[in-house]
Structures are given as structure tokens and as C-alpha cells.
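Q: For a teaching session next week I want to show students how multiple molecules come together into a single three-dimensional assembly. I've collected the sequence lines for a complex. Could you give me the predicted C-alpha cells for the whole thing so I can convert them for display?
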Amino acid sequence: MIPELGHFALILALCLSVLLCTVPLWGSWRRNVTAMALAPNLAIGVLVFTSLSFACLTWAFLQDDFSVEVVANNSNSLLPWYYKFSAVWGNHEGSLLLWVWILALWTFAVAVFSPQLPLVMLSRVLAVMGFVGVGFLAFSLLTSNPFARLLPGTPADGQDLNPLLQDFGLIIHPPLLYMGYVGFSVAFAFAIAALLGGRLDAAWARWSRPWTNVAWAFLTLGIMLGSWWAYYELGWGGWWFWDPVENASFMPWLAGTALVHSLAATEKRGLFKSWTVLLAIFAFSLSLLGTFLVRSGVLTSVHAFATDPARGMFILVFLGIVTGGSLVLYALRAPAVASRVSFAWISRESLLLVNNVVFLVATLTVLFGTLFPLLMDALGQGKYSVGPPYFNAVFIPLMALLVPFMTVGPLSRWKRDSTSRWKAELLVPALVTLGCALTLPLLHAGDYNVWVALAVLFAGWLVVGLLRDISNRVRNSASVAAGLARLAPSYWGMVVAHVGFAATIIGVVLTSQYNIEHDLKMSPGDSDTLAGYEFRFIDVRTVQGPNFVADEARFVVYRDGREVVRLAPQKRRYLASGSVMTEASIDAGIFRDLFVAMGEPVGTAGAWAIRLHYKPFVRWMWAGALLMAVGGFITVADKRYRRQRSAARDSLRQGGVRGAQA
Amino acid sequence: MAPRLKLFLPLLIFVVLAGFLYRGLSLDPMALPSALIDKPLPAFTLTALADGRELSREDVIGEPALFNVWATWCISCRAEHPYLQQLADRGVPIYGINYKDEDEAARRWLRELGDPYRVNIVDREGTLGVDLGVYGAPETYLVDAAGVIRYRHVGVVDDRVWRDTLEPIWHEVLAMGQQP
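A: Of course. Below is the structure for the complete assembly, covering every listed component.
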């Protein structure tokens, strides 16, 4: 009964979404206040029913209702309750329901947190989001019904959740990633609403900016967690593979990064308006494209969902309507004349333009590499696979190109600046950074590493430049503390995110360059030393988990004769599916990770293939991503958005109503 | 170009892209016709991974066997590996073609994960791969006793692939070998 209730709630949510994308839009066209005012209520209704539906599916998982097909295929009575919970989105149908629910959540948030928007604008934004909702609800109901029953023929027990997904990281990775993906629909909806209204102005950029920053921050967190999960769960210490599914999440992030910066120029200077709108459309279209690539089976990937061409067709048609439709609208309504606002070549605007060009080119190269096998196949040129060498070869130089400009950006002035001022500001930071870059790699034993020196140079350049900028900003205050307190949250957000980027550079380069890996056969009693750490293999014992049995190897790690840590990697055999999984054991640290994973048993004398890793600075990569996300969240706290909004509230609201009465 | 027309450019690009995506739906990235089906395994002279001795076509034919193209840089190969081991344990002869790989990494891989292969042919430059029409790893070729390629599977061989596709052909090939 409960699953049917969930199914019914989902159908009601679809009906309400259809109303949401039609009635308010009609209202905004005919200036009918009643119809427009319906939008927030409909948004609440959609959230209520999708939540109910989601709760019903969750209930089916927690109660082991194996008459529901997705539960039977993706859960098991032995599964711990928290994995039963995360199993809700560990499959295509359930994850789509999560997607729909998060979309309803964002729509609701827009409805609730922007009473200051003119009603016309708000109703258009919500209608566009309602339209996206219609697409995904229909997709769920028509092609991937999560509540489909297995009646008769209910299995006694479920087939278990894929063991790879039985992990803490996978409990929170998809929700965060979807918060980001779907969050870009808000930026998209604002862009479309602005095009519909024919008003692309600074106010529009200001409204859409906090939403875009939050979505971008969530996406950053989601990608970071995915990388972290791959690192400790897949058992061979890799953290990024340029796999199509990873690229599917990375492309909207790159486009979103460009959008976040372009919105800054649009808000502050009224520049790049058409360009910003296009980026908003682009970022969300890439989110949809990601969904298409992951769920349609057009590309092969290690972690794609069970794929189905009918589903692919549905998403493709939807992508065609959303992206094609919005690009038609863009072509017809975007301002074609260059904006009258001008800026000199040496200015902050130019630097933001550099950011946009670099990130756009990066997005396109990743897009090209991801789709290349498909393009060649479609052209009849044979089958290809594009691997990490291509992506590294194009991506790393692009990022290296970006960093020199990235430091100058915050220091520079809008409209017109001068190179001599830049030189005066940055000469000392440049020398300090150069000094660090030349000396710091010497601290590491072994050969002087040029790549590390470059990484230190880039990261140091960013950080020292930011310090210089902060010191400039507090110079005229009574005290340093007072000066720092006066800096706006949006500025702090930028600082934190840029420092995060610097940390990520350090993490990625140092861990790639200084990583030490030993793969060897070890028997209990053996030991091996890498980077000064002695790994002593004590013994192997059998341990029993809730739904698996495992061989657990016990290691003690010594440094200079003192015990550092005890590590216990496992080789697990999951009972329901029979699949074997490697569970690495990691000692995490700020400056290094120690990583032990078990391979296969070798011979009969109790020896095992063992993988030992020493990974310096690997945490910096994720810490950096975390900082970027935190930076994104901090910007939203800026009073500017609220103050200007509330000031705008009365006039614009009245304006909206007056317009409606006219 | 008129300013207004320029704004149609993104739409145009998208339409082209959507066309490709549509075409992609009807293509199966896993399904590959091999020009070599029912043709003899190409001749080659390459070294063995374990000891560097020279191998040629004649060293590896004579009984029905699987030829598995793999590499340490290939993530799917790692997923496939335990199942190959199972097949080898069941007595299916498997020859490895270590494709565009580093010898040391490959030997380490076999030490760590186990070695299901009769012998590994080192195809560092991918020349044998070109002759076979390999476009990626893993790929598995089913070759009969006469050294004729009977089937090509692209992607991971797992229990389902074995039972549904490879095993029927395998039995057919075995039965054929027993007839005079």
C-alpha cells in the first residue's frame, strides 16, 4: 500500500508541476496577479508530494519490502539500516527520485527566500523550474518508476546493494552532487526569466548570484567527495580518472566557475550580459548532458547506471527542448548590440574575461574528449577511447595559464588600471613567491623537483597576492582587526575559495610527484620501508561484518623505531552477491597519508600481495576543494544581497503590481 | 555577420551536437564488428612478459584459447581480473596480450593480483593490437585450435558474458576440435 501511495504522490507532484509551469507563466503574460501569486503555493505543493513520495520509497527500503523491484535489486535484509537508507539513491530509479526531490527543494527555496523579487520575475523563475520538474517527473514515472512491484514472485531476500556503494562517502556524495547539478537550474531559470522579460540588468545578476554560488559550492563538495571516495574505496589510491561520469560532473563545474565570475562583472559593471546568460544556459545544459551520458549508455564508463536507450531518448528529447528552446529564446531576445559600458584592456574586466575564456576552453576540451569516442563512432571513423593523457595534456597547461592572472584579479581596479600600479603592488609578492618556489622543494629529500617548484610558485603567487590585497584594504583602518572586520563576506568568500584553489594545486602536484608506491608479496612477519616508514605485517585473521566476511591483515607502522599507527586493511566477501571488495586502511595526515591495501593471496603459505602507498599532501587537494566550497557559501552571507533586495522590495513589488494593473 | 544572426550560433552548435547524441543512442559502444572474425590470428614476433623470450603465433596456437588484451592503466581490466582467474582455474587456457603497457608495472600487477595467463605477449607498441583491430582494453578474442578467431568481445568478461555469449561458442569450438 505504501509504495502505491508514493507512486500516487509522484503523479500528483507531476500534475502540480504542470500547473506550475503554465498558470504563472500565463499570469505573467496577461499580468494576472492571482495566477502569478499561485506560483509559490504550487512550488510548496510540489515539494510536499515529492517529499511524500521519497519518504514512501525510503520506507520500502527500511522495511525490506522486496515486493518493490528496486528494493529487491538493490537492498538486502542483512544490510545495516544506514546503507538501506542510502540504497534509496544507489540505483537509477531512486537516484532520479532524489533528483526530483532536490529540484522541488530548490524550487521551494526560491519561492520562500525571495519575497523581494518582483512578482512577475518570481512567477517566471518558478515556472521555468516547474517545467524542468515536469520533465524529470515524467521521466521518472514513464521510464523509471521507482515503485514498480514484483507481484507475484516477490523474492525472499534482496540482491544487495553494490558493495562499492556500501560506504559513508556514497551516502552523502550523490545528494551533494545533485544539489549542485540541480542548483544550476536556478541560475538557468533566472536567465530564462530575464530573457522572457527582456530585462537583463544588474538587478537580475544580483538576484541570481547567491543561488549560483551556493549551487557551485555544493557541486564542488560533491565532486570532492567523489574523488575522496574513489581514493579510499577503490583500493588503488587513485583520485581522478577522467572517466566519462566524472567528466559529466566536472563540466558543469567548469562552466559554473566561469558563470560565477562572469556574474560578478554583470552585477558590478553591467557587462557581459548576453555572455552570462549563455553561460547559465550552458552550465545547466551540461548538467542535463551529464544525466544523459550517465543514464543512456552512449559511452562506456566504470560507474554508469544500468542503461537503457529508451531512457536516453527521453533525456535527449528533454535536453533538446530545454537547451534548444532556451537557445532559440536567447537568439531572439538577447541584446545584440554591444553594451555601452566600456573598459580598458588593463582592468579587472579584462582579467575576468581571461578567467571566462580559460574556463570555457577547459569545459570545451573536456566535453570534446568525453564525446570524441561517440563522435568518431557516429561518423563511422571507428572506435576510440580517450584517456587521461589527453586530458592531462590539455587541462594542466590551461590551469597554469590561469593562475598568473588569478592573483592580479582581486588587486586590480574596475574600468581602468595601469601595469605600473600592478608592478608596484606585486613586485614584492613576486620575489617572495619566487624565493619560496626555489627553496621549498629542497626540504624534500631526493632530487630537486621542477614540477613541485612550479606548483609552489603558482600557489604561493595566489596566496601572497591575496595577502597583499588584504593588507591594502585594511591599511586605512584604525586597527588591523577593525579593517578585517569591515571586509565584506563576499570578499572573504573569494579569498577563501582562491586559497582553496592554491591548496588544491599543491595537493595535486605534490601527491603526483612525491607519491611512493610499493606492490609486493608479503608474509606475516615481513616488513618493508618506504619514505622512512617501516610497515610490519603482523598477521591475517578472519573478521565477520554485518553482511560480509573478511580477511583482515594487521600492520604496525614504525618510524625511527617508534610506533606510528596500526593499520588493518580488509579483503571482504559480501554474502548476498558474492562479490569481493578491497577495503584499504589509511592513516591520514596533513602532510602525508599512509595507505595499505590487500591484493590476492599468493601461494599457500599465507603470503599476500600487498600494496603500500606513501602519499604526501594528498589531503590538501580535498581540503582545498572544501575551502572553495566554504568560500562559495560565505559569499551568500553578504549583506549586499539582502540590503539591496529589501530596498528593492517595495519599489519593484509595487512596480510589478502596477504593471499588472496596467 | 549581422549581430542578431551571431546569436544563433550557440543554437546551431547545439543542434549539431544533439544530432550526434541522437546517433549515439543507436550505436552500442560495446558492440564491435571485427574484420577478423573467422580469419586466422595475425602473425607476430614479440617477447614474453615473464622472461623476455621471443614468441610468435605458432607458440600460442594449437588448442582453443582466449586471448585477453589488458593493461595496468585500464581500470576495467582490474575489475575483470578475478573472473579471468576463475576461468583459468576451471582450465580455460588464457593468453594475455599486455597492450601498450610498462613491463615492470605489468609484472607487479600479476604478482599482486595473481596470474591467470599461460603466457603474456608484450605488445608495447601496440602492433599486434593494430593487426587485431584493438581499440581499447579489455578485449577478449576466442581462438580455436586452428588459430582462427571465432569471436571478439569488447569490454569486461564476467560471469554473465561468459555464460551468455562466450561459453556456447567455447563448447562449439571444443567439440569441433575433438572431431577428426
